[in-house]
Amino acid sequence: MTADEAVLVLEDGSLHRGEAFGARGRTLGEAVFATGMTGYQETLTDPSYHRQIVVATAPHIGNTGWNDEDDESARIQVAGYVVRDPARRPSNWRSQRDLADELARQGVVGLAGVDTRAVTRRLREAGSMRAGIFSGDALSDATSMRATVLDSPEMAGADLAGAVTTTEPYTVPAVGTTRFRVAALDLGIKANTPRMLAERGIETRVLPSTAHIEELLEGGPDGVFLSNGPGDPATASHAVALTSEVLRREVPLFGICFGNQILSRALGLETYKMRYGHRGINIPVVDHTTGTVAITSQNHGFAVAGEPGSRVSSPVGTVHLSHSCPNDGTVEGVTCEDVPAFSVQYHPEAAAGPHDAAGLFDRFADLMGSH
Length: 371
Ligand SMILES: NC(=O)CC[C@H](N)C(=O)O
Fold this sequence. Notes:
The protein is of the alpha/beta class. The protein has 2 domains: 5-151, Carbamoyl-phosphate synthase small subunit, N-terminal domain (Glucose Oxidase, domain 1, 3-Layer(bba) Sandwich); 161-369, Rossmann fold, CATH 3.40.50. Helix content is 22%, strand content 33%. It contains 10 helices and 20 strands. The strands form 3 sheets. Strands 10, 11, 12, 13, 14, 15, 16, 17, 18, 19 and 20 form an 11-stranded mixed beta sheet that branches. It has a 7-stranded mixed barrel with strand order 1-2-8-6-4-3-9. Strand 17 and strand 18 (317-325) form a beta hairpin. Helix 8 crosses helix 9. It is globular and about 60 Å long. Belongs to the CarA family. Its EC number is 6.3.5.5. Residues 4-134 form the Carbamoyl-phosphate synthase small subunit N-terminal domain.
């Protein structure tokens, strides 16, 4: 890595100087911090991070290099990447190349050599904020770089699923015998989701976010899946309308993260922007039905409003705000008591992360089996 200068400029006017990492140039996005110690390849390729500049709290990044197997989508999706101490040389039996080279190859602007924990403390106190990374020819004086950041769009109100969804439908076959067929609305789906469904004998037909109800329910699928995805759930009116129709027809439905926010909105609940969100792979979730706690993988900046553990009425009957995060008391999942639908704010596909929540895919299969 050549030691040329790069700077992270936050909306609050603070400047964090380091070295260019990956591509040189300029990038703008929402600065968020992610606390996972592992799984940077999955994080960087997760479409939910579209238009976000990810700040890694783990000080050493890049140790396991990059491979052709662990991508969660077709490309690196983050707007930028900020790390403290990049590995000088990757060392892993699966590594095929170097992280910095891969960032450069895909044109992703990054920054290394800053105190990412200091940046994180700032984001934790003041909240996620707009930011820019500037290097090479894009470097200029602090005032104009900050003005560029202040001109960039906010994450609140951003409608981004259309930027990451598939253009054409495709099918991921079940492994072994096909027990169920699921239609998945791709709002930014991760590759591990259809894979985990496939392992349970579920064939997944993945559809663009613009699909109409006839396309979604073509061939009479056994269930509908709402994926994770970037942007503000308050903008996702089409997905919310589709979901209302699926609920009305009582087709079994399961949603993850953005999908949880969409289902909740279809049930009449509201979403709001959190101060700094949850992004990590060791976040606890309480299941209010069983009283158990799962350690989960998460990546969200918006949340569903409501009292964890309470029951509210909706157009399709009673809804249990069935899961919550004990760290801050936010809602982490909803369960419909009168129609076959549930969703969680966290990631049972856990790429990367712990496997505590993997059983939710079995719960979805059971729900389809009993309808
Ligand atoms: N991972 C996701 O699906 C994220 C959902 C939404 N964009 C949020 O930030 O809350």
